[in-house]
TrEMBL record:
<keyword id="KW-0012">Acyltransferase</keyword>
<feature type="domain" description="Phospholipid/glycerol acyltransferase">
    <location>
        <begin position="35"/>
        <end position="154"/>
    </location>
</feature>
<dbReference type="Pfam" id="PF01553">
    <property type="entry name" value="Acyltransferase"/>
</dbReference>
<dbReference type="GO" id="GO:0016746">
    <property type="term" value="F:acyltransferase activity"/>
</dbReference>
<protein>
    <submittedName>
        <fullName>Lysophospholipid acyltransferase family protein</fullName>
    </submittedName>
</protein>
<keyword id="KW-0808">Transferase</keyword>
<dbReference type="InterPro" id="IPR002123">
    <property type="entry name" value="Plipid/glycerol_acylTrfase"/>
</dbReference>
């Protein structure tokens, strides 16, 4: 109930008014039946803009931190995501990944739309990063199509660290459904999972026009943080000497 209140009354109309998103390829999203919508992830706003333009309800696998934040802000955020029907995902290890897959398969088993960001985290610099294979596991186990989606302009509207979005043109592109039925029963084959995931990421890339980085976003973020930390330590030592 709260999901539709947000979509049609509280948040959806405001998002459409402020961002006036240009939508392309909406006809590729099936009107009935289970499917995965796999998109790039550039901004916190992505969580709201895509559901606002879809005719059907979509359930996202959202990071658990959105549900466990401290203070009043944390409680409000958790209430919002719970009320909107989003599923918390613990990203701290292999077992956590398996739990996320089970949750996603549960959504698909009910014939619903599942939203997922294969990169596993928001892009910190606007580039598209290597996808994790969980999306492939779910697509093959559930036997459902994957609709690639590209968010364009949301990084500029609300880059990481910016709380209040700025007004900026936004485009949302949906691509043709990807059919992986040829790989049925092969969800335990690592090479197959990587091939399926890479095909999904290439489809997103073709829609978004982003620069592609063949490394996981989390790894690149960690490397950059380490370089900054090392650089700061060098400057501190120079000042001390």
């Amino acid at each position: 109930m709260f999901y539709y209140l947000l979509k049609y009354v509280l948040l959806g109309p405001l998002l459409r008014l402020v961002f006036r998103p240009r939508i392309e390829g909406l006809e590729h999203v099936p009107s009935t039946g289970a499917a995965i919508i796999a998109g790039n992830h550039l901004s916190f706003s992505d969580h709201f803009l895509m559901p606002a333009v879809l005719k059907r309800r979509i359930t996202f696998l959202a990071k658990a931190e959105y549900f466990t934040g401290p203070g009043l802000k944390g409680k409000l955020t958790a209430f919002f995501f719970h009320s909107a029907g989003q599923i918390p995902v613990d990203r701290s290890g292999k077992e956590a990944g398996q739990a996320a897959i089970r949750e996603g398969l549960g959504v698909l088993s009910k014939g619903e739309l599942l939203g997922i960001y294969p990169e596993g985290t928001r892009s910190h610099d606007g580039r598209l990063y290597k996808g994790k294979v969980g999306v492939a596991v779910m697509a093959l186990k559930a036997g459902v199509p994957v609709i690639p989606c590209a968010m364009i302009g949301t990084f500029e509207a609300q880059p990481p660290g910016k709380v209040v979005p700025r007004i900026h043109p936004v485009r949302i592109r949906f691509g043709e459904p990807l059919d992986f039925s040829r790989y049925a029963g092969m969800e335990n084959e690592k090479a197959v999972l990587r091939a399926v995931t890479d095909e999904i990421m290439y489809a997103i890339l073709a829609l978004s026009g982003q620069e592609y980085v063949d490394k996981y976003a989390a790894v690149v973020k960690a490397e950059e943080a380490e370089r900054k930390s090392a650089g700061g330590e060098k400057r501190r030592l120079r000042r001390a000497s």
